[in-house]
Amino acid sequence: MKTSRKATLFLLIALICASSQVVSHAAKVEPEIASALDVCSSLDQFTRWISDLSGETEALIHGKPHYILTRYALADDARTSEQYLREQFYAMGLEVETQMVFPEFSRNLIARLPGITRPEDVVIICAHYDSTSEDPLTRAPGADDNASGTAGVLTAASILRNFRFECSVEFCLFTAEEFGLYGSEAYAAECLAAGKNVVAVLNMDMIIHSTNDVQSLLPLDVDIVTNSASETLAASIKSSIERYTPLDAEVTVDAVRGSDHASFWDIGSPAVAVAENLPSEIWSGSTSVYHTTDDLITQPNVDLPFGLSVARGIAAATMIQAHWERPRSLPFGVASSAVVDGINRSDGGEHRAFMSVGEESGTDGAFAECRAENLVLQGAVGPGPAVSTRPSVIPPLLRRSFPAPPLFRKEKRSLWS
Ligand SMILES: [Zn+2]
What we know:
Elements: H1 2-26, H2 31-39, H3 43-53, E1 59-61, E2 64-66, H4 76-91, E3 96-99, E4 108-113, E5 118-128, H5 143-160, E6 163-165, E7 167-174, H6 182-193, E8 197-204, E9 222-226, H7 231-244, E10 249-253, H8 261-265, E11 271-275, H9 279-283, H10 304-321, E12 324-327, E13 337-343, E14 350-356, E15 367-372, E16 375-380
Helix pairs in contact: 2-10, 3-5, 5-10, 7-10
This protein binds zinc ion.
Residues 128, 145-146, 177, 205-206, 259 line the site of zinc ion.
């Protein structure tokens, strides 16, 4: 009896030790993920996307400057913002699919990274890009609701495009959420009809007001809203956010249909919303400019680093959910020169240029900028003058510098085989 108790105790201690090892292994910070979050996204770019989408600055669309005054799904400018967003994905080398929801609405946009071994399993990062206000056809800046989440999706895309995944990753920007989740409903129905296995949906909706403006005791962390069927996903996202960003995350099981994640609950997929506050808090006034013409990036309580951290946390969570395999680019440390394909910003013509890739130059990335003969070209970098690894479709408009992907050390060469 005694011996048996001892054995049981020993077994129990061994089990506790083993499980704590499992926990600490699962909770470790992967240096490639941490590096990618830091190097492939920037506060400047995140800010610029929100600023352009909310009409604070002139957006460049089809090469022409234009103030986007509203993204209300029925407004002409919503179509303009749709084109702007398409061009942002193109500039990252991603192809974009368009889905019509109703002919009168601006359309859904879907950019994809196909999975390597399990392409039928899909992780979706999404946000609605439409907006509303008390005068929606004229002015609905929606900087927080939801240019912020839209910029979050673009930020995640700018990070994740540098990696390969076992599962497919989709970046979805939905229309007509403000009319009642129409865009996401249409896309969830399409996923169901196509027999896709949507394994996780990470929806960002309102992520730049870190503090509330009603001076109540609302928490200053990021909120993850989940239904009970998505609790495992929510816990994993919380863990990623807390490991890879300075933020705390709080999970609340609250099956309110406040945003696009609910459309995926309806098709039986795990889905969560990530937001500055709970829907109940937002609806009761925690963000007072919500759905008004004052939802501007210049509001004093806008906290852009907070929003960028949320987006980075979502990117890290997706890398884990989609089972990241290895960096997508070629061994840049090996290449001494590279070819850059791109569009001349000034005349829109297609050009090819050669550039040298020095290990110390900081340009050894899948996407680099080349300045030669007064041309400013951006494009993917190949391993030498004769080969280009750039995607087959040349982005129609490239105008911004995207930060170079993480600088992988030489020892990591074996990853590229
Ligand atoms: Zn919203």
